[in-house]
Amino acid sequence: MTSAVLSVSRLDRSIEFYRDVFSCTVSVREPGAVLLLATDGFQLYLVDRGTRAEHPSGGIGHQFLIWAVGSDSELRDLAAVLTDRGGHPDVSTSGGVSFLTAHDPDGIRIVVAHPSPETFPRAVIAARLYT
């Protein structure tokens, strides 16, 4: 996968969040939409839907994004950044993989894993991903 598209309620707030937390940079900006690039080249499109748009979770379709970091210290640093921004990240381990779970400004669930699937292929599916 190379890209994801997220509908957000306040575009500038979401740009700031993904820039500050995940080091994304603005590649293209159009009225009502922006293309962010992560450091590994992953593309994140943010589309402004306004504050009245609904965001159902638990239904069919995309549920959340999973990012990966290169070390336990990066996972801890990310948890500190999210805490400093007023978030409440939760860290757990399943099948030898550490997962940090948090939410973006619109309440979209974000999961960060270490090690990455390329480094440590998954042997189990963490229950917190589907319960």
From TrEMBL:
InterPro entries to which the protein is assigned, alphabetical: Glyas_Bleomycin-R_OHBP_Dase (IPR029068), Glyas_Fos-R_dOase_dom (IPR004360), VOC_core (IPR037523)
Domain VOC: 1-115
SUPFAM superfamilies in the record: Glyoxalase/Bleomycin resistance protein/Dihydroxybiphenyl dioxygenase
Entries under Pfam families matching the protein: Glyoxalase (PF00903)
PROSITE patterns: VOC (PS51819)
Protein's UniProt name: VOC family protein
